[in-house]
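testing teh design pipeline on a random one, pls ignore if ur not involved
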């Protein structure tokens, strides 16, 4: 008799294992570096103790922990509200989109059918210029999720994206320089918009409100944002509630083009 005769692995089991691994990977990615990781560890410890008390037939303790775990499921939805939201956004927007993405074949599932391409060249050139002159800027580019809720906090506009316009909006003495601009397709549709600020604890302290706001909008929607720091001219790119690292502006341009495709 073979040792593993009793183990029958079907294709479905393999898919199951992959999906669980995928789920764990994303849960870990979301909670890594946040306070949520401590809560998650607490839950794992309680679950292990519960499992042990069950195995050892310790009925009172296992009953108490069992009830706690049962009710805990709903508590988890509240505690991990931000993370669950981020996770659903990540699953729903990032990984299956793109030129060859799965959702491309299900075009009826997309809210937006914008065909006008954003002038990414103009955005990058403007950022480069603003970086050299230490001009602070915050640019948000809409993807599938509507940004109506942030647009109405600023002034509605309808201007074509081009380098001089971007530079003049963020020019220090301009009346429009404060807050964020929102880009839809190749139009600047709002200026002076106030974005939701991220509460993420693992954002380094050297980043102030402009950077937190740029992260915040990408946590709540699938938009991408670009910041030019007034303090040091550094250009940052944010997506899915995180900084996206890049080496050169050419890399950044290609990354944005890929994310918008
Ligand atoms: N919630 C927000 N939504 C949109 N814009 C914001 C928000 N909070 C701050 N800003 C913009 O960021 C500007 C500077 O903020 P702050 O100095 O705290 O940012 P920072 O991240 O340190 O960036 P910098 O490196 O440019 O100083 C503000 O004057 C404002 O224009």
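output:
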């Amino acid at each position: 008799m073979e040792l593993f005769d009793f183990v029958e692995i079907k294709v479905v089991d393999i898919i199951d294992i992959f999906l669980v691994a995928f789920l764990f990977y994303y849960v870990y990615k979301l909670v890594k570096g946040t306070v949520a990781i401590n809560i998650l560890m607490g839950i794992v410890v309680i679950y292990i103790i519960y499992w042990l008390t069950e195995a050892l037939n310790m009925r009172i303790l296992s009953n108490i922990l069992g009830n706690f775990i049962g009710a805990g499921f709903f508590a988890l939805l509240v505690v991990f509200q931000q993370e669950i939201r981020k996770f659903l956004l990540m699953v729903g927007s990032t990984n299956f989109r793109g030129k060859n993405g799965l959702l491309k074949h299900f075009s009826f599932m997309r809210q937006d059918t914008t065909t006008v391409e954003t002038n990414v060249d103009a955005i990058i050139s403007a950022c480069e210029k603003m970086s050299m002159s230490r001009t602070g800027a915050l640019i948000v580019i809409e993807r599938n999720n509507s940004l109506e809720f942030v647009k109405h906090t600023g002034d509605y506009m309808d201007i074509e994206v081009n380098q001089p316009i971007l530079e003049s909006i963020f020019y220090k003495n301009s009346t429009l320089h404060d807050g964020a601009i929102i880009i839809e397709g190749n139009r600047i549709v709002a200026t002076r918009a106030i974005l939701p600020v991220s509460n993420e604890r693992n954002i380094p302290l050297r980043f102030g409100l402009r950077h937190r706001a740029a992260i915040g909008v990408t946590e709540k929607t699938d938009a991408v944002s670009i910041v030019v720091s007034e303090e040091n001219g550094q250009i940052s790119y944010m997506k899915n509630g995180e900084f996206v690292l890049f080496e050169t502006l050419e890399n950044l341009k290609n990354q944005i083009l890929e994310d918008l495709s």
